[in-house]
Amino acid sequence: MKYIKSNLVSQAVGPYSQAVTVGGLVFCSGQIALDEEGHMIEGGVREQTGRVLNNLFVVLKASGSSPDRILKTTVYLKDMGDFAAMNMVYADLLGDHRPARATVAVAGLPKGALVEIDCIAEINE
């Protein structure tokens, strides 16, 4: 098992790792729309979803993986009314790749985020 830490994204806001690799897989902790200094970016769910996925992509790269190796994501939305807007950005950034996914509405997210996404991916061979 190996703990992953990239300085290209905000550091974890709690006692956990950005990702853990084990057995050819990478388990990425949920990302919210923080910039490198740990500040929430401006904008709505579209902007936040883009930043969240880009943060995940950075962590995947640091883990020896890539977006096209994602097996499963979980999307946490503060408001299920944002589903269509999040989905448009998600589909655009993942292209033709279609990992398994669950999307759930939550009562709240850290730092007032509108969306959080975590994932499980294969490590590139």
Task: Write up this protein.
The protein has 125 residues and is α+β, with helices and mostly antiparallel strands. The protein has one domain: 60s Ribosomal Protein L30, Chain: A. Helix content is 24%, strand content 29%. It is built from 2 helices and 6 strands. It has helices spanning 45-62, 83-94, and strands spanning 2-4, 19-22, 25-31, 70-77, 100-105, 115-122. The chain has a 6-stranded mixed β-sheet, with helices on one face. Strand 4 (70-77), helix 2 and strand 5 (100-105) form a beta-alpha-beta unit. It is globular and about 40 Å long. It starts with a strand and ends with a strand. The model has no long low-confidence stretch (mean pLDDT 96).
Radius of gyration: 13 Å
What is the rounded distance between the termini?
17 Å
Domains, number: 1
CATH superfamily: RutC-like
CATH first level? Alpha Beta
Instruction: Assess the beta-strand content as a share of residues.
Output: 25-35%
Determine the fraction of residues in helical runs and give it as a percent range: 10-25%
Structural class: alpha+beta
Q: Which architecture per CATH? A: 2-Layer Sandwich
Overall pLDDT level: 96
Summed up, the helix count is: 2
Summarize the biggest pleated sheet.
6 strands, mixed
- Compressed to H and E, one letter per element, the order equals EEEHEHEE
Low-confidence stretches: none
Using the coordinates shown, work out and report the CATH topology. 60s Ribosomal Protein L30, Chain: A
